[in-house]
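hiii so um. not sure if this is the right channel but i have a protein structure encoded as tokens and i wanna go backwards to a sequence. like what aa goes where. can anyone help
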């Protein structure tokens, strides 16, 4: 099957009601600093492990940029150990929190003012993490694409040479159907639906398209 554009895929996924058991915009605690932390912790980690780390941070009441910026690295390492790569992630979280406070003052100003360029120069943040923060923490009209996205589109016969090329294909077909406010939610749901579909319809690296065709 050849897709006309990404809106056709978006619509097919919507019909399957893949997010009926998820938060409305898929990522838990959408629009909060917790998303920033989760976006870093989920690098090379299963979400279930990330949730354990986030629970640890909530329990110790340091899930805020001003508090994380002052947390001793060894203490943070122990709290986020379930997420793996804990030493690097602890350093990156402390550094990002410090820079966030220094540059923007608080998370609310950060969410309104930060841009992708600022995020990409922060240690440990690449395109996918930056876009996850923009989309799910800052409610920006930015589509996150990842290995799940590439696998689903590969099953349809699409190959993309770069993250940016894959992202532009996903955004372009959807862009004309929503206004700016709706678009941020649409991209958030689109990415979430793709992840849920691929998780539920994969055997090894092969994605079964039967329910979409």
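sure thing!! here u go:
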């Amino acid at each position: 099957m050849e897709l006309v554009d990404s809106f056709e895929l978006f619509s097919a996924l919507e019909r399957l009601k893949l997010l009926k058991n998820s938060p409305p915009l898929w990522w838990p605690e959408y629009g909060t600093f917790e998303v920033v932390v989760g976006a870093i912790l989920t690098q090379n980690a299963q979400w279930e492990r990330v949730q354990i780390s986030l629970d640890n941070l909530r329990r110790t009441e340091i899930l805020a940029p001003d508090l994380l910026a002052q947390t001793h690295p060894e203490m943070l390492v122990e709290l986020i150990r379930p997420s793996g790569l804990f030493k690097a992630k602890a350093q990156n979280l402390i550094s990002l929190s410090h820079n966030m406070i220094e540059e923007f003052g608080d998370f609310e100003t950060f969410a309104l003012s930060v841009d992708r360029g600022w995020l990409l120069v922060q240690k440990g943040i690449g395109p996918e993490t930056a876009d996850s923060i923009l989309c799910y923490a800052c409610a920006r009209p930015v589509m996150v694409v990842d290995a799940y996205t590439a696998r689903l589109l590969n099953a349809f016969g699409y190959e993309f040479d770069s993250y940016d090329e894959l992202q532009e294909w996903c955004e372009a077909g959807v862009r004309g159907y929503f206004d700016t406010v709706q678009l941020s939610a649409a991209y958030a749901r689109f990415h979430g639906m793709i992840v849920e579909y691929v998780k539920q319809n994969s055997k090894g690296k092969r994605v079964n398209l039967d329910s979409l065709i």
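oh and Residues 180-200 form the longest helix (21 residues).
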